[in-house]
Structures are given as structure tokens and as C-alpha cells.
């Protein structure tokens, strides 16, 4: 019986350039050449969702990585230099951030190191849940609020490591906040592997020594022992960073909801009055025109035309309702969302300040109490500005209500309509209130026309929500404010750290951006300090790369890196010669750089295991390794081709047990590295192990297999052909027996109702084939896109 059961086959419309299995679920993420990110399910390779390329986020996907719990998918975009964190449940961005260089590789790992301090922290209930009220759900988008909370994830520390061009390497705790900026590594990153105990980071880069020569592939092992020594402190600090980052995202979305609640119709009064000024022939000001109507009950013919023909009774009523509805919504959002989020932000920053004061534990990690104090002050300024907006909304609602009520009655009288008795009552106090409103809001401002294209700014809430650097058109009037004057005249209080600074002329958006910038700067210092503590322990030039680079993305090219959590080993799989991929080399090093004295290097040859009559002791290598990935800590999944590959020769999917490679532990120690030479110049001295696979292999019929993505936890693999469009999916721990084939054939005869165009056509398996390969069954809707054997 052929090993591995084929459970799906698919011909895709676009060339696939990245594949990544979810660590916890039977889902595989794909990225294609047009910039689309797709999620497919193992069963029938059915598409779950697709995220099309976007002008704002970017179109050139260059890396994929899953969070260890499988709930978040991260991908990097080269054209915009952004990293997007996407919900696995739906194609929506939950969080994104910019980086300084295009991402070429990303690795998302979970810390498995245990200690009593960490265990108590993991098991303890988050105190913020006990002390802070639960953040209210965002209106009309309650799911979004829950999704933001997904960003926090599990309390156990995980880290997203990003590698890019020009030696760019950054580490993000929980995928959210940067905790290390690594320097001192040359070249463009091809692979990354962070040890689960945080003791070392292995990096493979491509260094372009000169424009005319081929690039040099180099292995680095970086000592990150500071993170390992201070792991409990790093975890607590990183958790706080993530809380803060999540709250900033929540405040940003709350502000977006406020902007959506504000409607353009609210600007109608300003534009109508501006048009009235431009068209009227009299020299009387607009303010005087309305004052005459208020005092004498009579309006000029021009004002009557404005009110009755342009504004209209119906339009005035609609405008009044819009203002009341919009202002009420914004008011609720400020009180329930902005203030709640800001108070939670203050809490977590204050906790962080307390941690920074414990210098014995946190000073080495770069936590700066003074910087955190600046961040707390910036949050206080934001809360003050939000309260100012509340006051403006409150006074505007009262002003507009009285003004519209008076104007509505006046317009009804102009049209000689019946005025209800309850509307007709107007006290002297009401008249004074309207007169004050007209005096304050109905002054013509020529300088405002040059700036905003209007003479009036009756509506004063919208200016706070504009995402502009300009000052407020109508800042709050602080004249006569005794507290404000007292602070301005007091030298000591004006500079007091106990008082939050106040920015009367600035918008809410401006103060929010300032707050975000200060918080980002405050949390940047630990990343710089931790990054500078990372130092290079090993630098090993491996081989010369190919000078004529083809268009295939680097993810589909060896080297491949793996971290064995149980034995704390780093593995690197690579081949040296692009032209004749005869041997695969396995480099293994201990994650503790002090224990990696030996180079742990072996070469693996694949003997002829299809034809046992050939002398097995022959030194001839029959198979070349096309691609290789670690399946689990004990097994490597390989795609092989015959060295003398002829037309019609099939490629092979196989499982290579490490136990068959590391038979003699002393063998790998035989090699002594000459550090002055590249590894490919010493290849003849590298110990070689010839292996003969037994049962764990399968011929891939009618497919020029080139790349493989595997998941040992879910025991699945996905093989991609050289044309980058044809995929096959296998369950790796199940044999493809005849009984299962019959069941599959019966299922195929059952009509499928309501399937989408991307549904997989299950393969029809040929019983009589010695190797159990499947016949091609291409999707009819996509058959014209590509041939299977290209």
C-alpha cells in the first residue's frame, strides 16, 4: 500500500508563492502572485475566505506566519512595508504596523520554558479584569470589539520575529509590540528560528558581497540570553505592552465611530449662510438680519428667501433632528468608549511605571520611568480634550435646540401656518439665550473663508473630529475662566507634573496622534536596549547562492530552519549547489551558544530504495532533494527527484526519520570547520550518511512536485508543483488503502449542491497503480489556467 493518503487535489487559477499550515487546525494559508491571501480547509481543499490585495495595505505579499494558537495569521507586504494581523475566522485586518524595511521572512514562536514564577503569572487572573470595567462593545460593530480582544491571545509569551533586507530583524511580543531591534547582521534575511527558551536566535542571510558576484549564504547564531535570564520580567512587560497596544486600537476605532456619527448635513447651515452673504445686495450683516427678526419679528426679503426657499421648514426640521441624533451618538461614544479606554490606558501605564521603578528587575530591560510618566501625561491631555468635546457638545445641543425652536416658529409665521401654543411661548430668558447664540456664532469671518471656503462656523463639533494638523477654527473661549487664568499666572502650577497639559487650539485627533507618538517612543527604549544586548556568537558562511535569480520567492527555497523544543536544538536544512541538488545538509546547534562547540554537520545522500537489486553499498546518490521541511522533531519531509531524471520519471514524497541519519553520534563531530573558508569549499570533508527509505514514501504520479508545506501536529502535508498552481494534500499517518479509495469514489458520484467554483475535485485513485498515484481530476472552471505537468 502506498504511504500517505491523498485527501485532495486542486488546480488553482493563480500562482502560489507562499504556503503555511495552521498549527492548531486543518487550515492552510496561501498567498499568490497577485497579492491575494487565501485560507483553505483540508477537507476538499475548500476555500474558507480570501483577502484581495488592497491599495492602502499593499499588494506584494512576501511572508506568512501563524500565531501559535492558530487564531491570528500575519503576513508581510513589501510595497508598503507593513505587517498585517488578520483574524483566522474572517478576512479582516485586526491590527497593522509599519516597519523600516520590506519583510522577507517571519517566524512566530511560543515560549515553552517553565518556571514557578511564570506558572503563577500564567495561572493568575489578570488584575485589570477585576479592577477595570469591561470595555463596551463598539456600536453597530460588536464583533469588532471582540476581535480586538483576540489580539491579546493567551497569556503565555509568544513572539513574532521579522526579518527583512539590509540586516533588518525585529521581535514583536504577542505579535503586537516591539521588544527587540536586532542589529549587526548583514544581508537580506532568508530564514529565522528563535529558540523556545529565548537563549538564541538563528538567522540565515543572503549577503551581496559585490554587484558582479553571486550572493553568499551565511548562517548566524545570535546570543539573546538577556531575554532568557529575564524571561518572567520580559513576559510581564510584554503583556503590558500588548494591553496598551490593544487599547490604542480600541480608542482609534471608537474615534472612527465618532467620525461616522458626525454627518455632512450638519455643515448645511454654514454653507447656506455663506451663500446668503455672497448673493445679498444689502450692506446689513447676517447677524443684524437675524437680530432684527428676533427683536421685531420681521425679516428682510432676502432673509425670507433664504429661509423659505433654500433652508425650508422641512429642511430645518431635518437638520435639527440630524444634529440632535448625531451629537447624542458622539456624546455617548466619548463617555462610554473614549473615557473607558483612556482610563484603562492610564491604569496599564501606571502599572508599567511601577515596574520601571523596580530597577533590580526591569532596568536591564530598558524600562524608563521618565518616559512612561510622559506617556501618562499625554493620556491625561487626551482625556482633557475628550472632556472639552463633551462640553462643546452639551452647549451646542442647548444652543441649537433654542435657536431652531425660535427659527421654526418664525418660519411658520412667515408661511402663515398655524403655530402650536406650546411652541409660541418664549420667555425673556429664551430671547437672551438666542441673542447670545447669534452674537457668538453668526459673525462673518473673512479669514475663515480664505481657510475653509465659508464665512461661518456655526457647527463646532466636527472640527474636533477632523484628522488635520490645523488648529481649531473656533477654539473654546477661555476668557473669564478663572481656573485657566489662575494656572497661566502661576509659574509653579503651570509647570507642575501633577497637572496634565491642555491644548485649547488643537483637535481631538491631533492630541490622540501626539499621545500615540509619545507612548510609542516610551515603549521603544526597551526594544533598543534589548536589541543592543543581542550579540553574534557564530558566523558561518555556507555557500555561494545562484547569481541568476529566478522569479520564485525565497520561501520555496532552502535553507529551512527548525527549533527542537525538547532537546533545545536548532536545525538548518540546506543544499549547496543549485544545479545538482544531490545532497541535503543538516546543521544542528544547541540553543545555548556556550554549548555549541561542535558544528554538528552532516550530509545526507538518498540511495536507490525503489530498486533493491542495486548494490546498496554503492556510493552513487540516486536522488536529489528538491525541497525539505521538518515534519516534527524526529522527522523531515522531503521531495525527491532522480538524478538521471528523464521524461516520465516521477517525483517522490518521503519521510526521513532523523534516527536513520544520526546513527553514529560521533560521526557529525568528525568534521572540523575551517572558519576562513566557506562550507561549500570544504564539502568533501563533511561526513555523509546514505539513507535508504523503507515504507514512508510515495510516488507523486503525473506531478512535477517542487515544494512542500507540512504540519506534524495535524499530520498533513501540501505538495505544490513547479508551475505553482497544482497542489495535492496528504494525510501523512494514514495509508492510502483500497477500502478508503472505494469510499472516496462513492462520494465523488454523489452530486454536490451549492458548491463554490473553488471547491476541490476529489482525486480518483487508481487501484492497479503499484504506487497508488492519483489520476488528475482538474476543476472544470479552472482547467484552462494551467497544465498539470508544466
Automatic annotation (TrEMBL):
Boundaries of every Anaphase-promoting complex subunit 4 long domain copy: 219-417
Pfam families attached to this UniProt entry: ANAPC4, ANAPC4_WD40, WD40_APC4_C-half
Keywords for this protein: Cell cycle, Cell division, Isopeptide bond, Mitosis, Nucleus, Phosphoprotein, Ubl conjugation, Ubl conjugation pathway
Keyword Cell cycle set for record: yes
Chain segments carrying region Disordered: 734-790
Keyword Cell division in record: yes
Pathway participation: Protein modification; protein ubiquitination
PANTHER family: ANAPHASE PROMOTING COMPLEX SUBUNIT 4 APC4 (PTHR13260), ANAPHASE-PROMOTING COMPLEX SUBUNIT 4 (PTHR13260:SF0)
Identification of the protein by name: Anaphase-promoting complex subunit 4
Organism: Terrapene triunguis (Three-toed box turtle)
Lineage: Eukaryota, Metazoa, Chordata, Craniata, Vertebrata
Amino acid at each position: 500500500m502506498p504511504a500517505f493518503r491523498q485527501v485532495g487535489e486542486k488546480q488553482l487559477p493563480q500562482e502560489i508563492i507562499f504556503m503555511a499550515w495552521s498549527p492548531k487546525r486543518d487550515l492552510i494559508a496561501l498567498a499568490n502572485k497577485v497579492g491575494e491571501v487565501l485560507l483553505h480547509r483540508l477537507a476538499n481543499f475548500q476555500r474558507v475566505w480570501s483577502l484581495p490585495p488592497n491599495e492602502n495595505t499593499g499588494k506584494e505579499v512576501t511572508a506568512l506566519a501563524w500565531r501559535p494558537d492558530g487564531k491570528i495569521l500575519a503576513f508581510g507586504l513589501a510595497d508598503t512595508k507593513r505587517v498585517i494581523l488578520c483574524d483566522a475566522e474572517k478576512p479582516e485586518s485586526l491590527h497593522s504596523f509599519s516597519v523600516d524595511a520590506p519583510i522577507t521572512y517571519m517566524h512566530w514562536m511560543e515560549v515553552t520554558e517553565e518556571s514557578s514564577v511564570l506558572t503563577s503569572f500564567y495561572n493568575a487572573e489578570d488584575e485589570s479584569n477585576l479592577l477595570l470595567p469591561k470595555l463596551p462593545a463598539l456600536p453597530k460593530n460588536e464583533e469588532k470589539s471582540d476581535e480586538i480582544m483576540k489580539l491579546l491571545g493567551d497569556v503565555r509569551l509568544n513572539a513574532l520575529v521579522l526579518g527583512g533586507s539590509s540586516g533588518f530583524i525585529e521581535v514583536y511580543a504577542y505579535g503586537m509590540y516591539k521588544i527587540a531591534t536586532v542589529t549587526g547582521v548583514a544581508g537580506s534575511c532568508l530564514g529565522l528560528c528563535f529558540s523556545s527558551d529565548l537563549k538564541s536566535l538563528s538567522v540565515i542571510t543572503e549577503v551581496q558581497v559585490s554587484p558582479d558576484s553571486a550572493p553568499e549564504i551565511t548562517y548566524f547564531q545570535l546570543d539573546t540570553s538577556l531575554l532568557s535570564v529575564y524571561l518572567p520580567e520580559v513576559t510581564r512587560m510584554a503583556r503590558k505592552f500588548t494591553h496598551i497596544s490593544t487599547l490604542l486600537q480600541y480608542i482609534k476605532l471608537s474615534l472612527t465611530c465618532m467620525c461616522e456619527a458626525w454627518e455632512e448635513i450638519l455643515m448645511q447651515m454654514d454653507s447656506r449662510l455663506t451663500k446668503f452673504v455672497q448673493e445679498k445686495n444689502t450692506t446689513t450683516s447676517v447677524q443684524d438680519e437675524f437680530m432684527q427678526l428676533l427683536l421685531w419679528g420681521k425679516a428682510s426679503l432676502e432673509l425670507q428667501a433664504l429661509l423659505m426657499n433654500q433652508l425650508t421648514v422641512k429642511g430645518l426640521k431635518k437638520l435639527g433632528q440630524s444634529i440632535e441624533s448625531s451629537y447624542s451618538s458622539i456624546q455617548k461614544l466619548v463617555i462610554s468608549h473614549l473615557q473607558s479606554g483612556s482610563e484603562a490606558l492610564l491604569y496599564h501605564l501606571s502599572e508599567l511605571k511601577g515596574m520601571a521603578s523596580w530597577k533590580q528587575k526591569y532596568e536591564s530591560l530598558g524600562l524608563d520611568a521618565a518616559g512612561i510618566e510622559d506617556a501618562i501625561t499625554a493620556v491625561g491631555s487626551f482625556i482633557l480634550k475628550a472632556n472639552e468635546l463633551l462640553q462643546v457638545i452639551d452647549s451646542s445641543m442647548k444652543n441649537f435646540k433654542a435657536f431652531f425652536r425660535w427659527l421654526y416658529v418664525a418660519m411658520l409665521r412667515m408661511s402663515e401656518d398655524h403655530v402650536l401654543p406650546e411652541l409660541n411661548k418664549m420667555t425673556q430668558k429664551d430671547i437672551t439665550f438666542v441673542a447670545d447664540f447669534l452674537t457668538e456664532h453668526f459673525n462673518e469671518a473673512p479669514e475663515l473663508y480664505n481657510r475653509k471656503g465659508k464665512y461661518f462656523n456655526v457647527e463646532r463639533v466636527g472640527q474636533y473630529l477632523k484628522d488635520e494638523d490645523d488648529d481649531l477654527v473656533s477654539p473654546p473661549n477661555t476668557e473669564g475662566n478663572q481656573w485657566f487664568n489662575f494656572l497661566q499666572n502661576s509659574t509653579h502650577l503651570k509647570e507642575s507634573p501633577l497637572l496634565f497639559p491642555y491644548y485649547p487650539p488643537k483637535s481631538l485627533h491631533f492630541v490622540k496622534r501626539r499621545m500615540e507618538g509619545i507612548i510609542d517612543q516610551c515603549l521603544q527604549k526597551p526594544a533598543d536596549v534589548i536589541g543592543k544586548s543581542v550579540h553574534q556568537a557564530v558566523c558561518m558562511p555556507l555557500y555561494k547562492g545562484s547569481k541568476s535569480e529566478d522569479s520564485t520567492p525565497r520561501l520555496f527555497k532552502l535553507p529551512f530552519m527548525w527549533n527542537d523544543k525538547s532537546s533545545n536544538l536548532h536545525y538548518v536544512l540546506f543544499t549547496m549547489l543549485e544545479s545538482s541538488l544531490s545532497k541535503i545538509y543538516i546543521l544542528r546547534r544547541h540553543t545555548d551558544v556556550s554549548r555549541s562547540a561542535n558544528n554538528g554537520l552532516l550530509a545526507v545522500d538518498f540511495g536507490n530504495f525503489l530498486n533493491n537489486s542495486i548494490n546498496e553499498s554503492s556510493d552513487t546518490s540516486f536522488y536529489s532533494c528538491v525541497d525539505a521541511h521538518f515534519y516534527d522533531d524526529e522527522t523531515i519531509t522531503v521531495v525527491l527527484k532522480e538524478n538521471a531524471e528523464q521524461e516520465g520519471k516521477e517525483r517522490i514524497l518521503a519521510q526521513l526519520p532523523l534516527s536513520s541519519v544520526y546513527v553514529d553520534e560521533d560521526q557529525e563531530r568528525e568534521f572540523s570547520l575551517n572558519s576562513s573558508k566557506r562550507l561549500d569549499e570544504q564539502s568533501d570533508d563533511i561526513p555523509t550518511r546514505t539513507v535508504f527509505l523503507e515504507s514512508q514514501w510515495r510516488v507523486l504520479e503525473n506531478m512535477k512536485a517542487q515544494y512542500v508545506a507540512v504540519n506534524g501536529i495535524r499530520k498533513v502535508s501540501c505538495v505544490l508543483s513547479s508551475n505553482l498552481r497544482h497542489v495535492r494534500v496528504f494525510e501523512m499517518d494514514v495509508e492510502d488503502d483500497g477500502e478508503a479509495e472505494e469510499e472516496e469514489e462513492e462520494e465523488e458520484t454523489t452530486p454536490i449542491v451549492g458548491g463554490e467554483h473553488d471547491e476541490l475535485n476529489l482525486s480518483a485513485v487508481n487501484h492497479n497503480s503499484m504506487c497508488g498515484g492519483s489520476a488528475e481530476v482538474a476543476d472544470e472552471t479552472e482547467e484552462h489556467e494551467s497544465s498539470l505537468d508544466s
